[in-house]
Known about the structure:
The chain is α/β, with parallel strands linked by helices. It contains 12 helices and 24 strands.
Amino acid sequence: xxxxxxxxxxxxxxxxxxxxxxxxxxxxxxxxxxxxxxxxxxxxxxxxxxxxxxxxxxxxxxxxxxxxxxxxxxxxxxxxxxxxxxxxxxxxxxxxxxxxxxxxxxxxxxxxxxxxxxxxxxxxxxxxxxxxxxxxxxxxxxxxxxxxxxxxxxxxxxxxxxxxxxxxxxxxxxxxxxxxxxxxxxxxxxxxxxxxxxxxxxxxxxxxxxxxxxxxxxxxxxxxxxxxxxxxxxxxxxxxxxxxxxxxxxxxxxxxxxxxxxxxxxxxxxxxxxxxxxxxxxxxxxxxxxxxxxxxxxxxxxxxxxxxxxxxxxxxxxxxxxxxxxxxxxxxxxxxxxxxxxxxxxxxxxxxxxxxxxxxxxxxxxxxxxxxxxxxxxxxxxxxxxxxxxxxxxxxxxxx
Length: 400
Ligand code: FEO
């Protein structure tokens, strides 16, 4: 086994033994511009315990990190907090190579591990159950749908350390293991992007999970998620961020998402942006020629208004706009107002289609669509500008 990869210390008895994926750029549709980590943790208690594993191609890297600390065959217990392949993909191989006494997962986790990986013999743990590791104790808390039905978190009582699986994570590859060693701006951006793209549609489950952890009255000294850095300085900050994001509180930010064929819809979008800014809204224009759907999702996290524009092409909306709206619909944002606009040559169906899609997303359309045949005239651009001003007026009073 390679001795290139080392474990790294979280506390005296807890070590990070995960993997760094510097190259991943697509995480089921989410652009992971800064790569990611798959975090696994080794608890060096009397019962040596591995918390989660890694994505399959990183199995050897993870086991090498374990071997830098202890013979992998000394692992007694493995806890599978979450069965998605980025954390359980390596599990079957790890079991075969380390022969643990027991593997634990939630009831839904036991089922997922059996059906997705043909892995039998996993022991079910229930909500609130504790597991003695000899000189340390783990407490399991089920957090269904944060992120999958099987999700649970494990709290190491003596260390006041929460192994939080996907929750409180981010996609960020780095050799720094702790959040306080990284640029706070990058942390804020990546944590928000992760919440928006992974957890936004599950916000109610996130609120329930946060309430459950609060009711337990436990102290959170360290939060160790399955992706990105570990929170040890002010770990409650990310908990408070999650509570705020789960509320989906809207601000006076408006985002204008559009694509263009020959520049007409682009000119309309820019005129709407001018009106929004003149009306006092915070504005972000997102032409899809340069934006990725996951960046739009990040802006949706606190935007008060979503304005969407598309030319008509073959009686349909532009493919890039269909893509981003399909993605946003799945994220189920709530409480936004919006409007649509578009240009056309001989059809003009795009605005009707856009309006229908925004209505399906429960975006409240606050004005008539602006629709332009061929290139926009000055009057058309003034109409777009006024639409922006009216939407900004409706956003007034919301926070920034
Ligand atoms: Fe990081 Fe839901 O897996």
